[in-house]
C-alpha cells in the first residue's frame, strides 16, 4: 500500500521533521520546535554523513519528538482498549516507520524551504504552534498540536492546509483495520515499510 502524494502530502515529510519535544528548560513550544528544525536542517546538509547515517539520526529525533502512543490510540480508535500492551507497542513502532517510509523520498527535494513561525496558543497542557512552510512558489500553513507529558511537549497531530495528519491516515488505514483486524493492519504497515526499504 502506497499513498499517492498530493500537494499537502508532498510537504508532509518536511512537516513531520519539524516535530519536537520541549526540554524541561522552560522553553516555549515554538522555541523548541525552532531548535529541532535547525538541528534537522543541519543534519540534512552535513556532507560528512551519507544518506543512511543522516536518516538514522533523524529517525531517532522523530521517535523522541512524536507521541506515537497517542497517535496509535487515535489510529486504532475502539480497537485500542482491546489491544494487548504488546500490540499497542507494535502499533506505535510500525506507524512511526510507516510515516517515515511514505514521505522520506520527498524531504531531500524540499530541504531548502524556509519556515516562518506565526504564533502559538497554550491551553493548560495542550498547545498549537502555527507555522508556514515557504517554497519557491508555495506557502503551506502547518499547525502542530502538542501535549505536555512529564514536563515535555510532544506532537500528537498536525494540520496541513487545515487537514489533519491523523484523519488522513486513519481514512486510509481504517478499512484495513475493520476488515482484517489489528494483525492485518500490522501486516499492511510492515509491507509498506519493507517496500520503501527495497526501493
Summarize the structure.
This protein is 55% helix and 21% strand. It has 199 residues and is α+β, with helices and mostly antiparallel strands. The chain is globular and about 40 Å long.
Structural summary, described in words:
The protein has 199 residues and is α+β, with helices and mostly antiparallel strands. The protein is 55% helix and 21% strand. It contains 7 helices and 5 strands, in the order ααααααβββββα. It is globular, with a radius of gyration of 16 Å.
Mean pLDDT level: 78
Report the radius of gyration as a whole number of Å. 16 Å
Q: Helix count?
A: 7
Give the tally of β-strands. Answer: 5
Broad structural category: alpha+beta
Model regions low in confidence, pLDDT < 50 over at least 5 residues: 1-24
**Percent of sequence in beta strands:** 15-25%
Estimate the helix proportion, in percent.
40-55%
Shape: globular
Give the CA-CA distance, first to last residue: 14 Å
Order of the strands making up the biggest sheet: 1-2-3-4-5
Largest sheet: 5 strands, antiparallel
N-to-C series of helices and strands: HHHHHHEEEEEH
Amino acid at each position: 500500500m502506497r499513498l499517492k502524494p498530493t500537494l499537502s502530502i508532498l510537504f508532509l515529510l518536511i512537516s513531520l521533521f519539524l516535530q519536537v519535544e520541549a526540554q524541561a528548560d522552560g522553553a516555549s513550544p515554538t522555541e523548541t520546535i525552532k531548535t529541532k528544525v535547525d538541528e534537522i536542517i543541519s543534519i540534512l546538509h552535513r556532507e560528512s554523513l551519507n544518506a543512511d547515517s543522516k536518516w538514522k539520526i533523524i529517525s531517532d529525533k522523530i521517535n523522541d519528538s512524536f507521541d506515537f502512543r497517542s497517535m496509535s490510540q487515535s489510529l486504532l480508535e475502539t480497537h485500542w482498549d482491546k489491544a494487548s500492551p504488546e500490540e499497542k507497542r507494535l502499533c506505535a513502532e510500525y506507524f512511526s516507520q510507516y510515516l517515515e517510509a511514505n514521505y522520506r523520498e520527498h524531504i531531500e527535494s524540499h530541504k531548502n524551504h524556509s519556515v516562518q513561525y506565526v504564533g502559538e496558543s497554550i491551553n493548560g497542557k495542550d498547545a498549537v504552534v502555527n507555522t508556514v512552510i515557504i517554497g519557491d512558489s508555495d506557502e503551506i500553513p502547518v499547525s502542530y498540536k502538542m501535549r505536555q507529558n512529564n514536563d515535555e511537549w510532544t506532537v500528537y497531530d498536525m494540520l496541513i492546509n487545515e487537514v489533519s495528519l491523523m484523519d488522513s491516515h486513519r481514512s486510509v488505514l481504517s478499512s484495513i483495520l475493520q476488515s482484517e483486524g489489528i494483525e492485518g493492519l500490522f501486516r499492511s504497515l510492515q509491507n509498506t515499510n519493507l517496500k520503501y526499504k527495497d526501493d
